[in-house]
Amino acid sequence: MSPLGKLFTYVEKVPGGHILVGSSEALINWGRKSSMWPMTFGLACCAIEMMSTGAAHYDIDRFGSGVFRPSPRQADVMLVAGTITYKMAPRVRRLYEQIPAPKWVVALGNCACSGGPFNTYSVVQGMDEIAPVDVYIPGCPPRPEALLYGLMKLQDIIKQDKLTRRGRS
């Protein structure tokens, strides 16, 4: 019997005979968007809001992001919250480079988005000077609902992602 014939034999055994048709790219992207593994890089008050988002009231587990990863090698999303100085910028870049591809970056709070109120010689004026940012979540500090909305926007980006995309440097 041909492989196609075996498939139809199997479908007849499935109650209702339902068939799910889709591309492997859509299936892989669904898995990625449903199990984002964030590595947190909390530097200021935005990290407190990030922690409250991880609590039971906001249920970040529905995104598959309930357990924050301690190592960049175990993560695929980098959440940067707080002020970044030029002295720590090489280390932040190194953490970004250690995340395996595909990887995404979320800038959480005004300081990570644009330097916040600290327009000085020692403060990086936005995470995008260090690594490409996929989602910006403004606020000082941003509400947990804003972080959840940002994660939903990141899910939309991941859902439309192409498998042939190369890791960004």
Primary descriptors:
single chain, 169 residues, alpha/beta, Rossmann fold, four-stranded parallel beta sheet
CATH class: Alpha Beta
Structural class: alpha/beta
Report low-confidence residues grouped into runs of 5 or more.
Answer: none
The end-to-end span amounts to 49 Å
Largest sheet: 4 strands, parallel
Radius of gyration: 20 Å
Average of per-residue pLDDT values? 81
Order of helices and strands: HHEHEHEHEH
Overall 3D form: globular
Task: Kindly report the CATH topology.
Answer: Rossmann fold
Number of helices: 6
Would you write up a description of this structure?
The protein is α/β, with parallel strands linked by helices and 169 residues long. It has a single domain, classed as Rossmann fold (3-Layer(aba) Sandwich). Helix content is 37%, strand content 11%. The protein has helices at 3-13, 24-34, 45-53, 89-98, 110-114, 144-159, and strands spanning 38-42, 77-81, 104-108, 135-137. A four-stranded parallel β-sheet has the order 1-2-3-4. α3 links the parallel β1 and β2. α3 packs across α6. The longest helix has 16 residues, at 144-159. The mean pLDDT is 81.
